[in-house]
Structure formats: C-alpha cells, structure tokens
Specification:
The chain is of the alpha+beta class. It has three helices and eight strands. Helix content is 26%, strand content 38%. Helix 1 crosses helix 2.
C-alpha cells in the first residue's frame, strides 16, 4: 500500500504545482479505494476537485496500475471534523477557533493567533470575565487540532 501511495503522490506533485492546492491525506482502503483529501489556500471548490480527479484517473489508467480499472478514486476536501495535519492548514486557519488536544489528552479551546515552524499560539479564555492569555503550544506536544464551527 505504501508503495502505491508514494507512486500516486509522485503523480500528484506536478498536478498541484503552481496551484494553491495541497494534499492533507492520501490513503488506500480495501478494494483499492483511493481516498485523496485536498485543501486549498483560497478554498477547494468542486471544479478543482473534479479536475484533479480526471487528470489522476487518466494517468493511473494509462500506467495500467489497476488492470480492468479495479479501483476507485475519491477526491474531496477534509471534513470539518478532520484534524489539521500540515503547517499550511494551520496557517490557513489563523483567526479561527481550534480545539487542541495535547499528548496528555487535555483539551484547550481558543483562537489560533500565530503559527511558526515549531508550534502555534492560541488565545484562550482564562476566566468568566472574558480575559484571555496567549498560550504557546509546540507541535511535538499536540496530539490533534480540530477547527471548531462557531454559529
């Protein structure tokens, strides 16, 4: 599976070059179901997903990796409940509310204020008077971060 994922990533690189799109996750499930999750700095619309899907299917078919077309390819954006996986995703979500779980399974909810190569700055409420503090969280201590949908 990992070898095929690497081959697909190699096909994707030139397709995404020069665009604002990037891969957040790529997996192959039983039955050769390829699931490609993309995001984009300016938002991933259906046209972008369809374009990548068509180009990738054409290349996979041409290379004959799956005889008789014995595979499926799903290209979509990650769901709202999917954890952030890349530095680029964190940067895209500056100003949004995140639920960040650390390695000890303690959760902090706050507004993402800054992102560096080593971690994030999260503005969290410290009391009921709505006073806040800036908390620095290194990536090595973050188990997962999920954008919160606020209504």
């Amino acid at each position: 599976m990992q070898e095929m994922i690497s081959k697909i990533e190699a096909l994707l690189a030139p397709l995404l070059e020069g665009t604002d799109m990037f891969v957040t996750n790529l997996q192959i499930e039983p039955g050769n179901n390829i699931k490609l999750f993309l995001d984009a700095d300016e938002g991933l619309n259906v046209q972008k997903s369809v374009s990548i899907n068509r180009q990738l299917v054409a290349q996979i078919d041409e290379l004959g990796w799956y005889p008789n077309g014995d595979y499926s390819l799903e290209v979509s954006s990650p769901g709202v409940d999917e954890p952030l996986r890349s530095l680029r995703q964190y940067k895209k979500n500056i100003g949004r509310t995140l639920a960040v779980t650390n390695m000890e399974d303690l959760e902090q909810i706050g507004v993402l204020k800054a992102v560096t190569e080593v971690g994030i700055s999260l503005e969290v409420k410290i009391n009921k008077k709505k006073e806040t503090a800036l908390v620095e969280l290194p990536f090595e201590n973050i188990k997962q971060s999920i954008v919160q949908v606020i209504f």
